[in-house]
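Quick entry, no commentary yet.
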Amino acid sequence: MKKAVRSWLNLTMGVLTCLLIVGLSAYPSFSNTAPMQWSRDLQPESNLLAQGMMGESMKRYQITLSSQTVVPNAPSTMAMGSAEATLKGDRLTVRGSFSQLSSALRDYAVDPVNPPNPKITSAVHIHRGADTENGPFQFALTVKTNRQTMGGKFSGKYTLSPEQLQSLSEGKLYIDLHTQQNRTGELRGAFQAVS
């Protein structure tokens, strides 16, 4: 009897192992050609799972930062960036990165807006407005630059007002990145819902 149970357990474990190997190899981003894609795609959701935030009402957004969407004029730059965001209820979590900036980030402590706004604490902001206008400042993101300061990462967690939630659902919430050379904006990108 023990031999039959042991054989059945070995067979079950073998089948489960095969299914796991086949399942992982079938996931396109798990191959050796795209290891960063796997971790980037999985990280926000796994972080939310760890925080107990996964559920029906969670929504995901992607942001492609481009110089071509800067208003009123697209600057000449090689800069690029991207971000992902998740919305659970009224809580928005944003993470992203940028590289190849034309110059260092704008320092609002020595180069403030007029009139000054004490809430602008970094050069990467979330604004509210249509893609053809520069809308009002909403939030400053936390920024960490790399050693050369021409690239880095940003993040933030915010509670959105009903107006901000409406703007997000209409595609009228965007990220704007400002540099010393392009003070009014070097990169910009709107939050786009991921289905």
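second:
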Amino acid sequence: MKAWGKSFFTSATILAAMHTGLAQNNSSPYSILGIGDIEESYFNRTSGMANTGIAYRNKNYLTHNNPASVSEIQEQFFSVEAAARGKFVTYYTNNSNSTVNQTRDFSVSRFSLGIKVKKWWGSSIGLMPFSTANYSFSGKKSIQGTNAFTYAKYEGKGGVNQLYWDNGFSLGKHFSVGITTAYLMGSLTQTETFSGAEVTDELTTTKNIFLRNLYLNYGVQYYTKLNKKWDIALGAVYAAKTNLAAEYTTDIASNETVVHNEVTKNDYFRLPGALGLGIALTKSRQLTVAADYRYQNWSALGYRGAGYALQNSQRGSIGFEYSKSQQVWPLTIEKIFYQGGLFYSDSYLQVYGRQLKDMGMSAGIGFNSKRSTMSYLVAFEYGIRGTREKNLIEERYGKITLTLSYKDFWYTKGIKYY
């Protein structure tokens, strides 16, 4: 799709300008490429486990990592969950320890509602980000055909959200299947401004891209006992290649007066096929150790530009969880749980021959009320993304995620259990 590639600024100019300055509203300068930063977090019970959860099942929480897990929702209860995330990033460049800039951001990231429709059918709806673009930086850009330079400022914001519907179905005692039907929708705004003594008028070019389409994700889980103490679960997820309908608009303004407007319709942006595999081992319903591997075939789409290309992405993670319970007659209630995890990924962006890597660790702690109607999870993640080579940017970031979960009876046939 040539129109999409042309909508981005020349990568050589962009990335060379990054070290000149970064604004306080930056999320990542790399989000100028593709459809922004693809969201790797699920903002749920697996946040403290490095978001490891393709094979994870929990009857008290809504886990979007694999739609098959929704079949585990506890009967006669409904669940409501909301999550918010705070993020702070420090940027480094030029193979030095000097700080380019620091930014902070806070956002409400997820809302979901789930119920057990039938004994064999669980269902959940929710809203969360799919990708995010947020950057602002400036530098000098050469004027074509001359030896002169002009001041250039680049800004971008927006992203793609997903409104999703998870359905999980139990097929017997050891097997579940699921499907996520998501509607992806959003817009990206890119602004390029030229000013300075070399140009007679301030010139601003604003490009808006509106994206939308259905996106399907399929999942399966198999779970059984290994012996009296240990349980095992295996999981897999798959999403086929999907085209997002795209509409482009371009405004060119001179000293804030629009002098040109153009609308391009009936274009598209392709999302690649994706595959994920997971395993989880649980001992005595207290200790869980899990591992995930995810892969996306971006290189098959053929997107590339001056200095950048989209490459196959992969992510591996491991996580653990230790849970303590207490007896609140007639129920056994989870009182507190502790989590930890590690992750490593090759992102879908290759810039100046360097595929961006992301690695880090996470930790979390959660509490439940005595009646098990309200629970709280606080998770922290620290990671390093990017590189300082080739005048690129290295990001060192921290994320704090707060997840609130409320559960109560919704259908009891007149029977109360407490």
